[in-house]
Design goal:
This protein is mainly α. The chain contains six helices and two strands, in the order αααβαβαα. Helix 1 crosses helix 2. InterPro entries: AB_hydrolase_fold.
Length: 116
């Protein structure tokens, strides 16, 4: 496996968002992840459909319209079908990693409304 470098992290971000990070604080954060101590990634198993259907607590499923990490229409449809108490929101013109830096006010509003 290739070593992590700031350029590899930036390349992944460009792939996912379609551009380089414009926010200098976010760029510094991304660069710092290249030198962060690594541990083995533990991937969770996907929950079974029957377990999701049994979930009776409210849930907010927040998706980014231009995410390359998820198949957004498929994920939204599955969430609506399997989580009876879910609110499913797709943020237009957003990518998976752009939400915290480019849409903070909208993210705050959605979270506050959900938690109210």
């Amino acid at each position: 496996m290739k070593p992590f470098t700031a350029e590899r992290v930036r390349a992944f971000h460009r792939w996912e968002t379609g551009r380089t990070p414009e926010n200098p604080v976010w760029r510094a954060f991304l660069d710092s992840t290249a030198t962060a101590r690594r541990s083995k990634v533990v991937a969770m198993r996907r929950p079974r459909a029957q377990h999701l259907r049994a979930c009776t607590v409210p849930a907010l499923v927040l998706l980014a319209e231009h995410s390359r990490v998820h198949d957004v229409p498929r994920t939204a449809a599955a969430a609506r079908r399997l989580l009876p108490e879910a609110s499913v929101v797709t943020l237009p013109d957003a990518s998976h990693h752009s939400i915290p830096t480019e849409r903070p006010a909208e993210l705050d509003r959605l979270l506050a409304e959900f938690l109210a």
